[in-house]
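Handout, tutorial session.
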Amino acid sequence: MYAVFAVAIIAAYLLGSVPFAFLIAQAHGKDLRTIGSGNIGATNLARAVGRKWGYFCFALDVLKGLAPVAIVRAIGGVPDSPLLLSLWLLVGIAAILGHVFPVYLRFKGGKGVATSFGVALGLWPYFTVCALIALAVWIAVVLIWRYVSLASISAAVVFPIVLILGILTVPGWHSASLWPLVVAAIVIPILVIVRHRENIRRLAAGTESKMRSRTSPS
């Protein structure tokens, strides 16, 4: 069992490292690292080559997170202990770290929002519910203020709060067995927020670019 998880963690990192935005931009004759924000993510890709490619890349980045955790659950079943739950989470975290620190691009990747969303969708039901609520917050912030970065940061902040409220109020969600989820729900958003530190500086200075039309998370 532990050997399966070890292989899954390595495979998840390598899959997460696949820089879809960079590859799509290259196919269009562009180096995404020299365009716009320089971020290797769906939002910057949408600015560089068009919204349809941004949406397509966003879907691929979500799948990078969703597929590893879904496959592990299909093979190993529902984790029934904090240890197995922790191993399951490590698979998802490996995919996120692959996206943020891709081995194929000298560990300089994207901000991890889409891949984190994919991981959360695959960790049913606890993270999935939180992810859908965080997505609703993301959409609301974009519609009101039109800052993709602010929406991503807001969704990251909301995510652990929703999980903790769920553990406190939902029957069957016991903190004694779900504590690995709480740790991950705090660590992953912190990583996402840290990756948005330049955006935070621009938001504070009033120089952050607003979304001109519908796009996807960075």
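The second record follows below. Compare its token runs with those of the first.
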Amino acid sequence: MKSITLKSTGETITFVKTGKDTEGAFTEVICTIPAGQEGPPPHIHPLQDEIFEVIEGKLELSAKGKKILLEEGQSFNVTANTAHTFSNPLDRETRFRATYKPALDIDYMLVQGFNSLNSQSNPNKPGFQMIVDFDYILKQIKGQYKFAGAPGTIFAILAAIARLFIKPKVKSLKDHHASF
């Protein structure tokens, strides 16, 4: 199993099954989130459902316009095209399973996204390199992932400007699949 860790937060994702393992049916990961950490900014998987199942601790989901607190053994299906995010409200680590159906290229997005963030001197303060990298990733998996709301619009404008001066430093989808 391959694991990736986001240096800035300590969030770890371990791939249990990839789309390659399931002939594209789904990707299953185990996520570990340190105490009090937030997950990604609000985002949308237009073509995938994402099922969250808490293994240990509690997980706070923001989805469908409301906050949902999941406890151990509980799960919630965020349907395709629904803006969502998550966080760990506890003072201890939380572990949960996330299943993406269908698999599409979520492994590429997660691995290359973490790689980009890990290469930044300050991942909490987006720089042009990070914006160009994420723009490149999203163009490789067109229509599979997008930022929700105003951050998405701001991101698109900044990415268009940054691309004029900076080249991406992440792998292409083809190179990722060859090495993953």
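Points raised in discussion: The longest strand covers residues 49-56.
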